[in-house]
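Lecture notes, unit on protein representations.

Consider one protein chain, 341 amino acids long.
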Amino acid sequence: MESEIKKQPTILDVSKMAGVSPATVSRYLNSSSYVSNETKKKVEKAIKILKYKPSRFARNLKTQTLFSISVVVPNLNLEFYGEIVDALSIYANQRNVEVMINVTHNLDSIKEIVFDFAFTRRIDGVILCTPDFKTIEMFSTLTIPIIALDWRNDIGGDINVDSITIDNKRAAFTALSYLYGKGHRDFLIITGGRKIQSSIDRLNGVELFAQRHPDAKFFIKDGDFTPHSGYDVVKHFLRSEKKITAIFAFNDLMAFGGINATIENSLRVPEDISIMGFDNSFISSYTFPRLTTVDQQKEKLGITAASLMIERLYSTSNRRNREIIVPYKIIERESVRQIKG
């Protein structure tokens, strides 16, 4: 008996069932322009009933676009990137855009990736996570959309790169304002180093706060965003017997390391020393005590980057240098206590 070949549903079938035009279905699938919520529900219902799957190959023949983007990260050791890439990938894949992850580790790897992209043309756009300016310059030579995540253009110039970040300077200022409002005047600051822009911006926020609050004292030490560096900084600092009541770490991982070093030194958090982080890692609500931190809204960062890239892929305009600032907020938990001023 001959096996029957089941006909795959087409975009015309979806449009007929949804009661809308094929162009409307296309706009919905490609997120290329506005579609009302009511129409979205009709299209989504038709797609679900018909089990329709868009043909990437058919679209490629028409647009010469692969609908594949690369996310370039310096490493996968920090959960900060994992949460962003996860949200970004889910959003992109739901819109039939494939995501490829490239881990650089060092400058030579970055050069190899740029060379590969330039000559194989396997991707249509690149999202760079926490790049330095040299990396931005190398990737900007490619004739594809480039988005820099956790970076802002403080150089100026005609660089065809969009950026998405939070206001790191203001966020650090806000964090210290919170600690200051809790009565703290003696601070240990653990930076992420002097080469990464987000760390530099947060340090600028600390310096601005110090200028406006001469009654506060600051000890500034450099870490590298790893828990080990936070542990080492706090461990060595506590040996100096300098007085502090609060530690502000430029990410949660260093704050976790700092908590361990504090406890090992027979001190209590927050009774003896308050500790505040930055990122709002998913782990921060499971530590003991639970960590007070600055929420970067990493899911929103990832979704915003994916949405902006998809918009770039479908846009015919040449808009440049868009900078999107994602809001932040303080997440108050138990690692910071009120003390007498």
